[in-house]
């Protein structure tokens, strides 16, 4: 906003300070001293040419006519994402139009959040954030007013304002900070014999805690039992969780997809791996993010709450409890019972139940983690 020459003349005649109004500012003014103008190279040069020191009013008029330049602000249009307790930079760059060097003697930079100052440059740097902030004065002449925050927390999220005054013009930009961490995905299939398959989907390092994990078989929701772990809070404030999928028996070769939906993702994060019986793809292990496992606590699966009812009679777990067992008990008595127990133990060893397999998965987790290798999915490929 330009001041009228009449107003400037009145101020200069009274030998007062010149008040350069700041558009958009609720404060009364930002102050520019006339003595500062006299020290400016523009006024010093004009004074030498005239042979005598120019009046404050004349110098100010010439300064405003020759040095006026609009302030142009550049900030990111998309929100800046940061995980809890991480360090983050909020970009803010400015320039003058028409182009000319930035003079820090006429520069004020102020960062604020919800109306409260975070950091400010006005000759010197002042920081108001309790956990500190960095506004690098050395980079201001380059037009770089980026703000650096450390150990960000929930209260740091919000819309920041980057205000720049290069007398006599000013401008401001808005930078949104969202406290989010993209989930990482890790998938493992564990075949056991040719009649049993299980897939484990681990999701690590996400924030906030709300997440949806779904298993798909050939593009359709898994038809079988699903066990889900509770949320595990990591040391860095993020969360991890996991699911184990038990498909219905008889489905061997198939494509299994683990799909994750989270607010930090623009689109669902998913990875598809082939499901094959042992012998065709023996020992299938498809880690898609080893770092997800080694740097996060492994979620503890809770098999007490399956989403589907227990196996129906006729499954490998229960067929010996049917009519054949009753007939053998009636005919052979104690001898048949002994045979029954032996055959049952042998069958359970060949085809473990859900509880046995979950226990085994926990026991060999460390061994698997040490051998895990593969491509990391951190939400960037979707």
UniProtKB/TrEMBL annotation:
Keywords: Disulfide bond, Glycoprotein, Membrane, Transmembrane, Transmembrane helix. Residues 276-316, 346-382 are annotated as: Disordered. InterPro entries: Ig-like_CS_Receptor, Ig-like_dom, Ig-like_dom_sf, Ig-like_fold, Ig/MHC_CS, Ig_C1-set, Ig_sub, Ig_V-set. The chain crosses the membrane at residues 319-340. It holds the Pfam family V-set. Residues 69-178, 183-274 form the Ig-like domain. Residues 360-382 have a biased composition (Basic and acidic residues). PANTHER family: SIGNAL-REGULATORY PROTEIN BETA. This is Ig-like domain-containing protein.
């Amino acid at each position: 906003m330009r001041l009228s020459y009449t107003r400037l003349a009145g101020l200069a005649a009274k030998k007062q300070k010149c008040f350069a109004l700041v558009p958009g500012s609720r404060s009364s003014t930002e102050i520019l001293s006339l003595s500062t103008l006299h020290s400016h190279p523009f006024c010093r040069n004009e004074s030498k040419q005239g042979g005598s020191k120019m009046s404050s009013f004349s110098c100010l008029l010439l300064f405003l006519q020759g040095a006026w330049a609009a302030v142009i602000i550049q900030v990111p249009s998309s929100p800046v994402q940061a995980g809890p307790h991480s360090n983050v930079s909020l970009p803010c760059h400015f320039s003058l139009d028409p182009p000319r060097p930035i003079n820090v003697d006429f520069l004020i930079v102020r960062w604020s959040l919800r109306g409260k100052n975070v950091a400010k440059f006005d000759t010197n740097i002042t920081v108001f954030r309790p956990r500190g902030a960095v506004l690098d004065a050395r980079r201001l002449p380059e037009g770089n007013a980026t703000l650096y925050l450390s150990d960000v927390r929930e209260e740091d999220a919000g819309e920041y304002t980057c205000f720049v005054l290069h007398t006599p013009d000013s401008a401001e930009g808005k930078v949104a900070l969202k406290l989010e961490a993209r989930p990482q995905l890790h998938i493992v299939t564990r075949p056991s014999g040719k009649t049993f398959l299980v897939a484990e989907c681990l999701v690590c390092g996400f924030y906030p805690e709300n997440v949806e994990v779904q298993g798909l078989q050939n593009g359709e929701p898994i038809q079988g039992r699903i066990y889900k772990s509770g949320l595990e809070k990591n040391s860095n404030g993020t969360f991890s969780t996991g699911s184990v999928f038990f498909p219905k028996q008889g489905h061997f070769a198939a494509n299994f997809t683990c799909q994750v939906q989270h607010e930090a993702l623009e689109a669902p994060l998913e990875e598809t791996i082939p499901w094959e019986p042992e012998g065709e793809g023996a020992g299938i292990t498809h880690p898609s993010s080893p770092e997800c496992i080694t740097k996060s606590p492994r979620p503890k699966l809770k098999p007490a709450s399956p989403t589907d009812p227990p196996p129906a009679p006729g499954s490998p777990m229960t067929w010996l409890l049917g009519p054949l067992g009753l007939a053998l008990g009636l005919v052979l008595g104690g001898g048949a019972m002994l045979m029954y127990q032996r055959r049952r133990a042998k069958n359970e060893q060949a085809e473990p139940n859900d509880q046995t397999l979950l226990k085994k998965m926990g026991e060999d987790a460390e061994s698997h983690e040490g051998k895990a290798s593969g491509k990391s999915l951190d939400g960037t490929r979707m």
